[in-house]
């Protein structure tokens, strides 16, 4: 996906004249029944969930003029679809790392998250009259991409989901509370009991990605990688951050480029990291197969 955004420091954004005081909570109205507040810990799961449910991703702040009205309109439109799509809210004041990872230029920014891909929609408040049309277009895009769109007006509701295996449910609960070590332990135990469990493999790789990046600052990490192109750890970290932000092609390309003329130790480290990121993306991701092929060509 072409990246339309530049990296900015959201902390430097100026409060609009007459807007709410900085630090006021976003979304003080009644939340949608199909809404999630995005945190750094939950971002990767949100991206994974978009394989099944298209998601409108709103990055905003209590400082945004007309932001509450825009959010309320989006909530009504999403609720009217009865689960056919989801609304995800990023509070740019409290989740600056998430907003930075999404490379937002201005607030509010509305994005579409679908099948692991983030696509820009608009960088402004939409009038109510345009939101219904937008939702219709999003659902049509989902259908064109082969997604089974359930819910919505005239649509049949999805059957109840099968309960998660206990250890997988334990890992999910640990992720929600930010206890990544406990999530890793649960996934590893699940894989001891069921070594071929694809969900556990992907979950473990995702949590390890989150652990590797949890203390990293995006801008500083990119600067370090640019200034030290031979620093393997710096390059690996930026690839991880790209992956966390949904820039999968960038992550794969950065790592694959490191293999040209590399020594064996570097090849082993890069190969291991790529295999880990392939698990995060999932075997069905169309970007994985070409990257695997290029990896094999560069190694052998």
Helices and strands, with pairings:
Elements: E1 35-37, H1 43-49, E2 55-60, H2 67-79, E3 86-91, H3 96-101, E4 109-114, E5 117-122, H4 128-144, H5 166-176, H6 180-193, H7 198-213, H8 218-227, H9 232-244, H10 248-257, H11 264-281, H12 288-299
Parallel strand pairs: 1-3, 2-3
Antiparallel strand pairs: 2-4, 4-5
Characteristic key phrases:
300 residues; alpha/beta; Glutaredoxin; 3 domains
Describe this structure in words.
Strands 1-3-2-4-5 form a 5-stranded mixed beta sheet. Helix content is 49%, strand content 9%. The chain has 300 residues and is of the alpha/beta class. It has helices spanning 43-49, 67-79, 96-101, 128-144, 166-176, 180-193, 198-213, 218-227, 232-244, 248-257, 264-281, 288-299; strands at 35-37, 55-60, 86-91, 109-114, 117-122. The longest helix is centred in the C-terminal third of the chain and has 18 residues, at 264-281.
Main β sheet profile? 5 strands, mixed
Which residues form runs of ≥5 with pLDDT under 50? Answer: 1-25, 153-159
Query: Architecture of the largest domain in CATH?
Result: 3-Layer(aba) Sandwich
Strand order of the largest sheet: 1-3-2-4-5
- Helix count? 12
CATH superfamily of the largest domain, please? Glutaredoxin
Helix content: 40-55%
Q: Kindly state the number of beta strands.
A: 5
SSE order, one letter for each helix or strand:
EHEHEHEEHHHHHHHHH
Question: Which structural class best describes the helix and strand composition?
Answer: alpha/beta
- Tell me the domain tally: 3
Q: What integer is the average pLDDT?
A: 82
User: Beta fraction of the residues?
Assistant: 5-15%
CATH class of the largest domain: Alpha Beta
Separation, N- and C-terminal Cα atoms: 29 Å
CATH topology of the largest domain: Glutaredoxin
Query: Could you tell me the radius of gyration in angstroms?
Result: 20 Å
Task: Name the shape in a single word.
Answer: globular
